[in-house]
Specification:
Layout: H1 31-56, H2 70-77, E1 85-87, H3 93-99, H4 103-109, H5 132-147, E2 153-158, H6 165-176, E3 181-187, E4 190-191, E5 194-195, E6 216-220, H7 224-239, E7 245-250, H8 269-276, H9 280-290, H10 296-319, H11 338-353
Parallel strand pairs: 1-2, 2-3, 3-7, 6-7
Antiparallel strand pairs: 4-5
Helix pairs in contact: 1-2, 1-3, 1-9, 1-10, 2-3, 2-7, 4-10, 5-6
The structure holds thiamine diphosphate and magnesium ion.
């Protein structure tokens, strides 16, 4: 027997190449369902573009575009069932839409308020504290396992989040307790201005799972059918008691980190162009056209329908009055401590002075 290193040569799983040709195994999806996924990807992109436009007009908060990442966002959520849980960061708006959070609720949230998501969507509020949602996802999965509830949990974070302790703790707990969870790293190449190469010397982020005893997969994150296939398999593994999976989706952040960032200060334009050519929507569109599952006229109508839906959601969200300034105390604790009660009274007094309530 010879001394051998652990194999790190992983190749990203692909079903569609960049021209939309089938190069892998087609997942079992009806023609109707394929169009639902395609529309959800458009909805994600249109949502992103709309919130950026609203932010420029002072009608929305800081926002992180998901342009270029629609295949990962839709593909990771589409195989989930209603009883399953989803814990995301700010970049996965399209995942939340697929899992059942209403469009207008998400638009409202980018007015700077924190709406309650419908309980039946089983989505945690978007997490800004990098990486913590991975622990929440594992916790939800462990709770489901203990309760004998057949729910699976999916946690999603970025490449930058993998350098946080929380990410590693989440993997460790998931592995040790065989939690029914799928942990997804959406590797978009950048963590604000820090490139992927500075996050880890590991050849792939998926390789990190091996050390925790977790089966790990690397997938082309701009290929909706590949992401769907890998996620479906991982979710069903978890549901049938076979434990956690780590999935790395290789994708790219086409836009700046957020509306508050200028990526031209640290990123080469040629790199962006290279990834634009791998656009996940263009690739899936070509596939659908080639297979006669979509024609140009249908495509135009679908895009117009998405625009109309977004505009209606914006009108609905902007018609909702802002919450009372002290409302967030309602969500902090069942019983407020005397100190918090005092803070609430102070806030109300201050708001009154400012003429805000
Ligand atoms: C614990 C913590 N540290 C730092 C930040 C500031 N921060 C916001 S986004 C971000 C980069 C995250 O990069 P990545 O995980 O790759 O996600 P992406 O934004 O690319 O989707 C950082 C460092 C934060 N929100 N939370
Ligand atoms: Mg990133």
């Amino acid at each position: 027997m010879s001394i051998q290193q652990v194999d790190s040569g992983m190749v990203a799983y692909q079903v569609l190449d960049v021209e939309g040709n089938l190069v892998g195994e087609m997942p079992d999806l009806s023609a109707e369902r394929l169009l639902v996924l395609y529309r959800a990807m458009h909805l994600g992109r249109a949502f992103s573009n709309k919130i950026i436009a609203l932010q420029r007009q002072g009608r929305a908060t800081t926002f992180g575009s998901l342009m270029g990442q629609e295949a990962t966002a839709v593909g990771l959520a589409a195989p989930l069932q209603p009883q399953d849980w989803l814990a995301t960061s700010y970049r996965e708006i399209a995942s939340l839409l697929v899992k059942g959070v209403p469009l207008s609720t998400l638009v409202y949230s980018f007015r700077g308020f924190s709406p309650a998501y419908p309980k039946e969507a089983r989505c945690l509020p978007i997490q800004i504290v990098i990486g913590t949602q991975m622990l929440h996802a594992v916790g939800l999965a462990m709770a489901a396992k203990i309760a004998g509830d057949p729910a699976v949990s999916v946690g999603v974070c970025g490449d930058g989040a993998t350098s946080e302790g929380d990410f590693n703790e989440a993997l460790n707990f998931a592995g040790v307790f065989q939690a029914p969870v799928v942990l997804v790293v959406q590797n978009n190449g950048w963590a604000i201005s820090v490139p992927r190469s500075r996050q880890s010397a590991a050849p792939t982020l998926a390789a990190r799972g091996i050390g925790f005893g977790i089966p790990s997969f690397l997938v082309d994150g701009n290929d909706i059918l590949a992401v769907y296939s890998v996620m479906q398999r991982a979710i069903e593994r978890a549901r049938s008691g076979q434990g956690p999976t780590l999935v790395e989706t290789l994708t790219y952040r086409i836009g700046p980190h957020t509306t508050a960032d200028d990526a031209t200060r640290y990123r080469d334009a040629a790199e962006v162009e290279e990834w634009r050519a791998k656009d996940p929507l263009a690739r899936f569109r070509l596939f659908l056209l080639q297979r006669n599952l979509l024609d140009e006229e249908q495509d135009r109508q679908l895009i117009a329908g998405v625009e109309a839906e977004i505009n209606a959601a914006v009108a609905e969200a902007e018609a909702v009055p802002p919450p009372a300034p002290d409302e967030f105390f309602d969500y902090m604790a069942a019983d407020l401590s005397p100190r918090l009660q005092e803070q609430r009274a102070d806030l109300l007094r201050y708001s009154k002075q400012q003429g805000r309530s």
